[in-house]
Specification:
heterodimer; A: alpha+beta; Beta Polymerase, domain 2; Four Helix Bundle (Hemerythrin (Met), subunit A); cca-adding enzyme, domain 2; 8-stranded antiparallel beta sheet; 36 helices; 12% strand; elongated; B: alpha+beta; Alpha-Beta Plaits; 4-stranded antiparallel beta sheet; two-stranded antiparallel sheet; 6 strands; 22% helix
Chain lengths: 864, 112
């Protein structure tokens, strides 16, 4: 007698053979959507067979019971190893008990096929009830699909229960979605641009596609209390690209499932090689490297993430009330060009985009206030991009905007948005090479462009950080004179990684040179940026040496040249290492960078009086001789005996200018030059040294109400002094009255030649000054160091900055018969940090003299 | 099997690593460490504040090698890491009962 075939083994064979066929089809075509729809149909057919055999001889019977596909299965997205979410839906009462055994057998058969079944059993009333502890179930209902059983029961669920539930609980559902999404983003460092991304759960992955769909669906259901047309959920201009991204991601996920033999969605490097080789999601005729293929991936993921994040932000229910209050406050930021609604920027007039500077003003606005672009504004930007490409802002005008964006607190977010809209690469084509670039380095977590943005973000974040390390570095950042250059160096420091070169540092410098020339930066600013890029690995390399060894410190100091460059490079190194991955900047490294910094900063200050020998044949001297071949001995005699610090801190053009001023001392014994820089005025004095000279100069500036921010005083072997004072014009005397420039110079000239009554001028000035209480109290500290210099005693004064301070200190030196060999004056906020190399009678100060001077200074500075 | 733990100067890591590769040591764990022996701390003043480093930055290299390799490893580390000054570091040796390669369950020397 013939035996009836075992339905289980028959289904197993069917499932196995069809799965092999689906896999082969996929490997042949690379078509992910076809594969997932194919598997969904296969599982549907198996479920139907089991339904007919185990539950009811009719597909649409019995009454009051139905099987419903949920989640990914419901939307026909069954990837090769996806779970199968099924709802056994019944009307309640005795029906459930009567079918209990049959449901168990149905489930058992699916499990026996090794399908990962996630079943749920609910009555219609239970589906309607919202469970705050299981919001995922309510979300999975959004993708419900009829499989078998009572169609009318399913229709009640679909047409009545779900719309009602969603309308009633949309706020809770969206809030939960927001929480889940934030947790998911945090897990992946809030970035799409992971070197080894997760194509399902990572930002920009398929979960984000689903999120966008759910949010759009909930919003539409809230409005209409029914199911909307799927095709109308997203605007038509977005839908095509969004669906293309979905299909791409589906193909990649399919590939990964087949490759790994399980639900593993990590796109690791080895998988990237294979996926590129197989041209998954790419034209079959194309030949792509893994890195080129990854750019396609990031392009799709960036779009999916952008849309999902925007919908999440724009959904009112997604935000707690405190957040909304904050956003309402921010809406007051609206101005004539931009309207701010719920933290999103809208254009007041769309036609304003005809103004080619408007996009830059918009990103500057974004960088300053931490706002995002609304999806409408993004779309408008995308539309206007081709015409902007024809005549983009460039040169100094572009640099002006970039500067303001870079130093603003939310610079990284603005730059990311510019990059995402292709504006950044339009303005700075140098960035194109590192766009979504994967460099396989085990320590790095992000693509090169994202690493750059994270580094910029790290620097800005210093000011808000509570960590001990960050606060030290935040203080340094506040001291940097031109932070815009530091941020620009960070923006360009790794552009060379996109070039075919043995050294990305050299390539980055070459790329930056072109970029800086186009931005029309001043020569000294260009030099600074190029220096930072060229040296951006130097401090990290020095960490592999003994950072306390004098030779290491000396080597680093020689490379840095000036304290300002050291400071900038220290910050760049800190931000760069921290951007490699969240754990890269270990406390060990943070401490070591700091120790290396302070050791080198001290060395630079303490070695300041090392003197230039005119017969030396070093690089700087040779360079200067080349620039002024006619100067000959004039140059040598001017430089002879000047501190090396002078040569390190002055540009070659300044040295030559000072030499020319010195050569005119026969015509006028006091040579003064006044210029206006971006931040400060600069007054240079070249004259013969004499007692009270520095004090009188400081006093003259104080008498005019100028605030000395920085100063440096040097003298050569022949007693020629080069003093440079940088000051701000507190009362805008020079700014508002051009004729005052000459009167100011003449006044300083007279004071220096003792032709004017400085004491009276100062009394008049101090009388008119209001006593303003300082915001921060700085205790006076005087450090005297006799060991740093062979010829001088180093006196460091740290005190509360106030009008006339430098005059008081330097007058005290003169009264105590001390000669200032070198002065290095800095002001950080309300703290004056002044270092003086002093001699008395041509030698160091005796211990008694030092103590007398300390007491006199303390007494002088204790008075108001 | 012997576990070799070497605490060395940060500046000597590359030299030690290269020397160990030369004699066929393929695997090692490198840890950022701080500590001091007879070499004491370091104090630096900056902007009127005192910054004291009690524990000097060091590198710790750990590896487990076959017993017959242990002495050669020690000699190699010593040769590559020695400057002759205080602070060159220390090497510690200890016996290891067994090693298991997680991927394929290999045990003992063949798992190294």
């Amino acid at each position: 007698m013939a035996t009836k075939p075992n339905p289980g083994s028959e289904l197993r064979d069917l499932y196995a053979s069809e799965s092999v066929r689906l896999r082969q089809d996929f490997l042949r075509t690379g078509d992910g959507p076809a594969a997932v729809f194919g598997r969904t149909s296969l599982v549907d057919s198996i479920a139907s067979r089991l339904w007919l055999e185990l539950i009811s001889p009719e597909m649409e019977g019995p009454r009051d019971f139905a099987v419903v596909a949920l989640g990914g299965y419901g939307r026909r997205w069954l990837f090769p190893y996806s779970d199968i979410d099924i709802l056994f839906l019944h009307a309640g009462g005795a029906m459930e008990r009567g079918l209990k055994d049959r449901i168990a057998r149905f489930s058992q058969q699916l499990w026996d096929l090794r399908l990962k079944l996630s079943p749920a059993t609910r009555t219609l009333a239970e589906c309607e009830k919202f469970d705050p502890n299981n919001v995922e179930f309510a979300i999975s209902l959004l993708d419900c699909r009829y499989l078998a059983g009572d169609r009318e029961l399913f229709a009640r669920l679909h047409d009545q229960v779900i719309p009602k539930l969603v309308s009633r609980e949309s706020r809770s559902i969206v809030q939960r979605l927001t929480d889940l999404t934030r947790a998911r983003y945090n897990k992946f460092g809030n970035s799409v641009f992971h070197l080894e991304p997760n194509v399902k759960d990572g930002p920009g992955g398929l979960r984000d596609y689903n999120l966008a769909y759910w949010l759009a669906l909930i919003a539409a259901m809230e409005e209409s209390s029914g199911w909307p047309n799927d095709k109308e959920l997203l605007p038509p201009w977005l839908r095509e690209r969004f669906d293309a991204a979905r299909d791409f991601l589906m193909s990649v996920r399919c590939f990964l499932h087949f490759r790994h033999g399980r639900d593993d969605n990590a796109l690791a490097w080895a998988a990237q090689d294979e996926v590129a080789e197989e041209k998954i999601g790419a034209p079959r005729a194309a030949s792509l490297t893994a890195s080129e293929w990854m750019r396609i991936y990031y392009g799709h993921a960036r779009l999916v993430h952008r849309v999902a994040a925007q919908l999440l932000e724009e959904f009112p229910a997604a935000r707690p009330s405190l957040y909304r209050q904050f956003q309402n406050l921010r809406s007051r930021l609206s101005n004539a060009e931009f309207a701010v609604v719920d933290g999103r920027i809208f254009l007041q007039r769309e036609e304003a985009l005809q103004d080619r500077d408007l996009p830059l003003r918009m990103f500057r606005f974004m960088a300053r206030h931490g706002l995002s672009l609304s999806s409408a504004t993004e779309h408008q930007m995308e539309e206007v991009l081709p015409s902007l490409a024809a005549a983009p802002p460039k040169g100094a005008e572009l640099w002006h905007y970039l500067q303001e964006i870079l130093v603003a607190p939310h610079a990284a977010e603005a730059l990311r948005a510019m990059h995402s809209l292709r504006l950044l690469t339009l303005l700075l084509p140098e960035f194109q090479g590192i766009d979504s670039l994967v460099i396989r380095d085990y320590s790095h977590r992000f693509t090169v462009d994202e690493h750059t943005f994270v580094a910029i973000e790290n620097l800005h974040a210093l000011r808000k950080s509570q960590s001990k390390w960050d606060q030290r570095y935040a203080e340094l950042l506040d001291e940097v004179e031109q932070p815009d250059l530091l941020y620009l160096a960070l923006l360009l420091h790794d552009t060379g990684k996109g070039a075919k070169s043995d050294s990305h540092v050299t390539a980055s410098v070459e790329i930056a040179e072109g970029c800086l020339a186009r931005l029309d930066l001043d020569a000294p600013d260009r030099e600074t940026v190029l220096f930072l890029i060229a040296r951006h690995l130097d401090l990290s390399a020095a960490l592999r040496r003994d950072i306390f060894a004098p030779e290491t410190i000396c080597m680093v100091a020689d490379k840095m040249g000036t304290p300002e460059r050291l400071k900038m490079l220290c910050l760049l190194t800190y931000a760069d290492i921290k951007a490699v991955n969240p754990e890269a900047l270990t406390p060990w490294k943070a401490e070591n960078i700091w120790q290396l910094y302070i050791g080198t900063a001290n060395y630079l200050m303490k070695s300041a009086d090392e003197r230039v020998r005119a017969d030396a044949d070093d690089e700087v001297m040779t360079h200067l001789r080349t620039l002024t071949p006619a100067a000959g001995k004039k140059l040598d005699s001017f430089l002879n005996g000047l501190p090396r610090r002078y040569l390190r801190t002055q540009a070659a053009s300044d040295v030559i200018r000072h030499m020319d001023l010195a050569s005119r001392l026969g015509e006028d014994p006091v040579q003064l030059e006044l210029t206006r820089g971006r931040h400060w005025y600069e007054l240079t004095l070249v004259t013969m040294d004499r007692p009270f000279l520095f004090a009188r100069m400081a006093g003259a500036l104080a008498a005019w109400g100028m605030n000395i921010v920085k100063a440096a005083a040097f003298s050569n072997g022949a007693g020629v002094v080069v003093d440079t004072f940088f000051f701000t014009d507190r009362f805008r005397t020079l700014e508002l009255n051009l004729p005052e420039w000459e009167r100011f110079k003449a006044s300083v000239h007279d004071v220096l030649l003792d032709k004017a009554d400085l004491e009276r001028m100062l009394r008049d000035r101090l009388r008119s000054e209001k006593n303003v209480a300082p915001k921060v109290n700085v205790d006076t500290r005087i450090e005297i160091d006799d060991s740093s210099s062979l010829q001088s005693t180093l006196v460091e004064v740290i005190a509360q900055d106030r009008p006339g301070l430098l005059y008081r200190i330097s007058s005290q030196f003169a009264r105590e018969n001390c000669n200032i060999e070198i002065a290095l004056i800095e002001t950080e906020g309300q703290m004056a940090i002044d270092a003086f190399y002093l001699t008395s009678g041509g030698t160091k100060l005796t211990p008694e003299h030092q103590e007398r001077l300390r007491a006199a200074l303390l007494a002088e500075l204790a008075g108001k | 099997m012997t576990k070799v733990e070497a605490v060395i100067q940060t500046s000597k890591l590359d030299a030690v690593k290269d020397a160990l590769h030369e004699i066929g040591v393929e695997g090692m764990t490198v840890l950022e460490a701080r500590g001091h022996g007879r070499q004491k701390g370091h104090t630096e003043f900056y902007r009127g504040r005192e910054y004291t480093v009690d524990l000097i930055p060091k590198i710790k290299i750990e590896m487990v090698v076959a017993d017959e390799m242990a002495e050669k490893v020690v000699q190699t580390v010593v040769a590559a890491a020695r400057t002759g000054k205080i602070g060159d570091g220390k090497i510690f040796l200890s016996k290891v009962d067994d090693a298991i390669r997680i991927r394929n369950d290999e045990r003992g020397d063949s798992a190294l």
